Amino acid sequence: MLGNRYLENILLETVRDINIQMMHIYENGDFSVTLKSDESPVTRADLLSHDLITSALSDTGIPILSEEGYAIEYDERKSWINYWLIDPLDGTREFINQNGNFTINIALMENNQPVLGVISVPVENKIYIGGPKLGYAKCVIGDNEIFLNQNTTSSYQSLIEQESIRIIASKNNRNPRFDTFVNKISVGHINRIGSAIKFMALVENKADLYPRFSPCMEWDTAAADAILRSLGYQIHEISYTHQPTVPLSYNKENLYNPAFIAY
Q1: Most buried one in 17, 32, 214, 234, CB count within 10 A?
Q2: In this structure, is the dihedral angle defined by the CA atoms of residues 60, 65, 67 and 69, taken in order, positive or negative?
């Protein structure tokens, strides 16, 4: 069994290398944009990141499920005990627009639960890593490590009864259910940004809630889910009455996430 320190180090080394190469593409604007079958964009940076991550993680012997990899049928992956779940470049549109709201997301899954996650923000030279497997989460900036604090919110109900709730939301996806939700609580501010940076706004106490009603994929949430779980935060499916229900599930036949709320 691979040691936790080994896994942490290989993830940190991998994303540090990718950060350098991705920023070179980002700053030079040589994106080589093409469209996938669903008309979402993919760039040279997406594919390079995928190749570097899969090469680095291949030595672990753990299967890899990546947004930019080949489609793996459910009959093959449903029996996986461990696997890597990867979004090589989360926020491709933001990358193309050069607004900095993009990340690299890597999660280690065990029994379809996220146990270790890394989210790298190349523009800020910032890497978040943590999960139940480590028992902590930290933010790495250069040679400095800042251990992140545990969530102190007592309950979801007490949170939504507060005044001036800070909402973090998707920049590009709008949904009528979101408007209905925010109209029922006391919202002080809504900050719209792209990628998994939204989840990290919770752990840095820059936001209280992240409600998501527009479609996204399992690889968009898994790394953040691992980090949040290690700090006592939650990502739960959300009902039509706007109550959190059960934790997000992974390795479904359909890899789309349902509506959820992170808090």
Answers
A1: 234
A2: positive
